[in-house]
Amino acid sequence: MRYALMLISFLAGSLSNVISVRAHFGLADGDDVGTGLFWVWGAFIVGVAGFILYRRSLAKLPPEGRELKRRLNELERALTSCHSQLRNADDYPTECGLSDQQRRARLDSVLSIQGMIAKTKSELAAI
Description:
- This protein is mostly helical.
- The protein contains 5 helices and no strands.
- The protein has 2 domains: about 1-60; about 65-125.
- The longest helix has 29 residues, at about 65-90.
- The two termini are about 30 Å apart.
């Protein structure tokens, strides 16, 4: 998250009205760099405020809800992993090929993980 904020602030600073600076380090006629910096700082402050509000809304969940969210994230990560293994086996059969037994095991895993995701989402909605 820290690197994303650094990247956003770097891009915002590089895309502000500092572009209007011309040769010999002089400002272009009539351009105001302060306006661009105002909008950059405004976007930064709004982003920080949004992040704080998001974290507070997440903290309002009971411990069971946070545990369900963590479990849901892990299940979705496992589902993505199984899907990528199957996709790689289809796209690159010589490098990442799966035997028939392994493919059936991955497909069974996908179906069971999807069922657990649906169950976890319904439990999370009930909280």
